[in-house]
């Protein structure tokens, strides 16, 4: 996590945008599994995900859709609207799908 001149905290940029992306369940921060395992979540350090596979799996999810990039959460109307103005800026998911919703979507597709 780094601090830009304006005081905004910046989270790691995902190193890949494939299937290995995961999102923090609390703050919505999106990074790769490896990044969460190496440095945890910049916003939710109390999860203590560093070097802990089980914590990364329990505290993050690959089931989300939509992304928003926020450069300055304190000045972004989108960050205020999403109520994420106090978190480290960078890439955040917009919608989280629960396992139940995913199963329902798959079932609907199979029926069509």
From TrEMBL:
CDD domains: Spt4 (cd07973). Pfam families: Spt4. Keywords: Elongation factor, Membrane, Metal-binding, Nucleus, Protein biosynthesis, Transcription, Transmembrane, Transmembrane helix, Zinc, Zinc-finger. One of its GO terms (biological process) is regulation of DNA-templated transcription. GO terms for cellular component: DSIF complex. Residues 21-92 form the Spt4/RpoE2 zinc finger domain. Its main location: nucleus. GO terms for molecular function: RNA polymerase II complex binding; translation elongation factor activity; zinc ion binding. The chain crosses the membrane at residues 77-96. It is found in: Nucleus. It comes from the Eukaryota. Gene3D superfamilies: 3.30.40.210. Belongs to the SPT4 family. May regulate transcription elongation by RNA polymerase II. May enhance transcriptional pausing at sites proximal to the promoter, which may in turn facilitate the assembly of an elongation competent RNA polymerase II complex. This is Transcription elongation factor spt4 homolog 2. It comes from Phtheirospermum japonicum. The lineage of its organism: Eukaryota, Viridiplantae, Streptophyta, Embryophyta, Tracheophyta.
């Amino acid at each position: 996590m780094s601090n830009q001149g304006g005081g905004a905290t910046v989270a790691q940029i995902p190193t890949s945008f494939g299937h290995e992306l995961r999102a923090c369940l609390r703050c919505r921060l999106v990074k790769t599994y490896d990044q969460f395992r190496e440095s945890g979540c910049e916003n939710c350090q109390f999860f203590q995900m560093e070097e802990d596979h089980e914590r990364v799996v329990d505290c993050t999810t690959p089931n989300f859709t939509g992304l928003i990039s926020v450069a300055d959460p304190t000045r972004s109307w989108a960050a205020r609207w999403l109520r994420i103005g106090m978190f480290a800026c960078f890439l955040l998911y917009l919608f989280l799908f629960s396992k139940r919703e995913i199963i329902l979507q798959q079932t609907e597709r199979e029926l069509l």
